[in-house]
Structure to design on (482 residues):
């Protein structure tokens, strides 16, 4: 299992490093710089609104299906026949509920127009993720890795034509950005469905009431968890845009989006690790294999870069934001270090939350997530009126760190894990070295040189402390360890 995890993680990270940073910094960032913070902030708030409610599209189906098919491969044709039809029914429920909610909170005609396409996009994303869950559950990780970057690759091609040529003979606007995503998601759904169909054989769409009710009963705890986590991860910008008046709310959401974009970029790689680990953990638990070593390996590989990235974002926040954006960089710089500190909690969640999900420990996870939502909304209500986007960033950081720590302690309790004083001591020493290296790097003549020195020094410390053991990784890849 270790070799399967490491080799496929290398491929997954390589493909995503090749494609997604270009999408985030080459396309998405360029769009915001071109249309302005207010226009992009409007889109960003609507996008997060559609993300929060998209649990209605999935209701826990994807995570439950991933665990279940990983344990029982033969169920794929039966599940696929029933679930694809169910997804279309859920899409209708999601669309109606989203539009009614949008009407209640007061969205205008332009916002409704954009939201309609974002709703369509969310359905296609959800359908693709469900289809991919079958591929990863079959442990076809290489195919899944290629599919994980397909939508962004298509978006890069389409958006590049719109941004850097005059193919449509007009000024680029935020609506074009949304339409380009719709085209890319549609093509991705078609290709992914064709691959799954080839693995499962011919299917016939079915709507068996008994199957659907049983399936929903088993998947609803997963749905509740996703809803709660979506709320405390995505509600900040929605509250900013709604709580602050007019253009101020849209602009503050846009400023928040500048810093959040970088958090989203690094969290994306954590999500890839979690997605890869879920079927692996599920199969190991079913076969009564010990998970401690896999947890330690994956945690080390994720927490080390999380600490380095968080520290770099605190030390060089102003320089990074000035390099990336044209407006409001002084405000978004303050947000970057705060938001990125929360990435340490997110990294912990992607390991221990995934382990608990694979184990079916949904009650504990849902209680944790409910507390996270309560904390996040309360802090936003208190902080946004006075501190605006800065307040939302503080609320996000506090929530991510506390929920990440909670999942760690729950996992330790459930699995009777003993992290070990030696390992904990290494983490503490590593953090101290990172802080000292970061402070010293600020004395370099050039900030970029200082950042490189900091990154190299921190990585060297991780290797010397054997938090990342290169020799061990090579042995795993070369078949010397399972």
């Amino acid at each position: 299992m270790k070799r399967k995890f490491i080799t496929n993680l290398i491929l997954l990270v390589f493909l995503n490093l090749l494609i997604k940073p270009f999408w985030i910094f080459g396309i998405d960032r360029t769009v915001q710089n071109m249309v302005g913070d207010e226009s992009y902030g409007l889109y960003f708030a609507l996008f997060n609104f559609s993300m929060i409610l998209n649990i209605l599209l999935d209701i826990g189906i994807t995570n439950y299906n991933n665990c279940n098919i990983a344990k029982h491969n033969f169920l794929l044709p039966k599940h696929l026949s029933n679930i694809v039809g169910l997804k279309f029914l859920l899409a209708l429920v999601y669309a109606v509920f989203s539009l009614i909610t949008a009407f209640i909170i007061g969205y205008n005609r332009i916002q409704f127009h954009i939201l309609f396409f974002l709703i369509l996009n969310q359905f296609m994303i959800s359908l693709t993720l469900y289809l991919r869950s079958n591929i990863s559950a079959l442990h076809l990780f290489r195919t899944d890795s290629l599919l994980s970057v397909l939508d962004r690759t298509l978006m890069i091609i389409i958006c590049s034509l719109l941004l850097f040529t005059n193919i449509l003979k007009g000024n680029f606007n935020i609506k074009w950005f949304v339409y380009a995503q719709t085209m890319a998601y549609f093509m991705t759904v078609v290709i992914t469905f064709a691959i799954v169909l080839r693995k499962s054989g011919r299917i016939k769409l079915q709507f068996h009431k008994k199957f659907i009710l049983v399936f929903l009963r088993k998947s609803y705890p997963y749905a509740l968890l996703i809803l709660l986590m979506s709320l405390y991860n995505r509600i900040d910008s929605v509250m900013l845009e709604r709580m602050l008046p007019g253009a101020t709310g849209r602009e503050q959401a846009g400023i928040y989006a500048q810093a959040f974009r970088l958090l989203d970029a690094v969290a994306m790689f954590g999500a890839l690790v979690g997605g890869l680990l879920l079927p692996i953990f599920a199969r190991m638990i079913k076969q009564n294999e010990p998970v401690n070593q896999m947890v330690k390996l994956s945690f080390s590989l994720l927490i080390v870069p999380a600490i380095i990235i968080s520290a770099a974002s605190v030390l060089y926040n102003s320089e990074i934001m000035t390099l990336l954006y044209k407006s409001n960089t002084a405000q978004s710089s303050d947000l970057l270090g705060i938001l990125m500190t929360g990435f340490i909690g997110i990294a912990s969640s992607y390991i221990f939350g995934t382990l608990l999900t694979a184990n079916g420990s949904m009650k504990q996870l849902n209680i944790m997530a409910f507390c996270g939502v309560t904390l996040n909304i309360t802090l936003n209500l208190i902080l946004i009126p006075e501190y605006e986007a800065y307040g939302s960033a503080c609320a996000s950081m506090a929530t991510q760190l506390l929920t990440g720590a909670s999942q760690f302690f729950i996992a330790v309790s459930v699995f009777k894990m003993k992290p070990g004083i030696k390992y904990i001591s290494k983490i503490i020493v590593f953090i101290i070295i990172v802080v000292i290296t970061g402070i010293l790097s600020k004395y370099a003549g050039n900030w970029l040189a200082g950042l490189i020195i900091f990154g190299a020094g921190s990585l060297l410390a991780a290797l010397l402390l054997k938090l990342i053991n290169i020799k061990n990784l090579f042995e795993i890849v070369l078949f010397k360890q399972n």
Q: What stands out?
A: The chain has 20 helices and no strands. The chain has one domain: 2-419. The mean pLDDT is 82. Residues 2-419 form one domain.
